[in-house]
Write a structure and sequence with these properties.
Elements: E1 18-19, E2 23-27, E3 31-36, E4 41-42, E5 45-46, H1 54-69, E6 77-79, H2 87-90, H3 93-96, E7 100-104, E8 107-118, H4 121-130, E9 132-133, E10 136-137, E11 147-153, E12 156-158, E13 164-166, H5 169-176, H6 178-201, E14 204-216, E15 219-223, E16 232-236, H7 252-260, H8 274-292
Antiparallel strand pairs: 1-2, 2-3, 3-7, 4-5, 6-7, 8-11, 8-14, 9-10, 12-13, 14-15, 14-16
Helix pairs in contact: 1-8, 5-6
The structure holds adenosine-5'-triphosphate and magnesium ion.
Amino acid sequence: MPSTALCETHLSNREPITRGKVRDIYDLGDRLVIVATDRISAFDWVNPVGIPDKGKILTQMSVFWFERMKDTVRNHLISADLADFPRDFQAHPDQCAGRSMLVEKCEMFPVEFVIRGYLAGSGWKEYQHSGTVCGQKLPEGLVEASKLEEPIFTPATKATDGHDINISPERAGQMIGNSLMEAASGAAKRVYLRAREIAGAKGIILCDTKFEFGALNGELVLADEILTPDSSRFWPADQYVPGRSQPSFDKQFVRDWLETTGWDKNSPPPPLPDDIVAKTREKYVGAYRQLTGNEDF
Ligand SMILES: Nc1ncnc2c1ncn2[C@@H]1O[C@H](COP(=O)(O)OP(=O)(O)OP(=O)(O)O)[C@@H](O)[C@H]1O
Ligand SMILES: [Mg+2]
């Protein structure tokens, strides 16, 4: 395993306009360079320790999906080839190569477009309580990890403290306009269904996923990362058994470890130990290889 994670980029001639939880973002005017670092967040806290190569894996996976989804909906990706980037980025291949996307800068919607095809996580918790997921009534008799007849759209919005708050589709329509909301949720469902087929053929179940959309001159654009283990739940199909929680390729593993530490989730998290870092990295690498069929990233 490469011993070092890249947790922050530092380029000679540029400062990022912002560092998100995972990405460092550079503003080029009408375009952005989004560099995925190896930072990992869980329970809305970035861990002081990164996962080597995670940013490359997330970027290469997003590129894989953008390529396959470009006929379904317009997306923001211009290039992930460093040769197409401004020189300042080309001068730092150690920090930028393989983990950066040159994208069209969009007016982002303040809504997360979550599509759920299976019953898991907070959705399963709510269903047990009220027979609903984000207020939407579901048939009786479902169990944990049941496949839903139709995927459902359960939008969320970000509170200032970073926690997601579920909202109704109607509320999402009020926030961004009904026609854009309908267009984006329709596109999100189509992309989810196509992706589910592609992943299914590789032995991966795409349980649920979150998309971010924006607008460019009034046109809908799919942005951010798509269909990665950070934005989705992936389950290995050969171990799928409804009625229990599923093993997964995502950072559930990290969450589980954090839960064992007694951390209060209201203060900086304990650093991940080496063995947890190594196992987490293996999960990301495994998901990437199984899905794309590529060895390298
Ligand atoms: N094409 C785009 N145009 C403008 N902003 C974008 C585009 N694609 C992604 N973004 C934004 O870039 C950021 C990506 O950074 P990252 O994923 O690290 O942030 P995050 O932790 O998810 O969110 P936060 O913004 O709350 O820190 C997100 O705020 C996302 O909305
Ligand atoms: Mg993000």
